[in-house]
Specification:
about 70 residues, mainly alpha, 3 helices
Length: about 70
């Protein structure tokens, strides 16, 4: 999570942050470091594909698909 190389911990944490982000249940202004880390994760080609998925009847917030939120 703090190193130069992505690890399984990064991907595991990203899954949780993505869920919280989708539910608008995270205040990104509380930590620029976490926001920057998550923006890097969201920018990865493999992760970008996940950002188009939606839960039926529960649309994501407008910033969810934005790679530079």
């Amino acid at each position: 999570l703090v190193g130069e190389v992505m690890t399984l911990a990064d991907f595991a944490a990203a899954a949780h942050f993505s869920t919280l982000d989708y539910l608008s249940d995270i205040d990104w202004s509380r930590s620029n470091a976490v926001k920057d880390w998550y923006a890097k994760i969201k920018s990865r080609p493999a992760f970008r594909n996940l950002l188009v998925d939606q839960v039926s009847g529960f649309p994501p917030p407008l910033h969810y698909n934005d790679l530079d939120f």
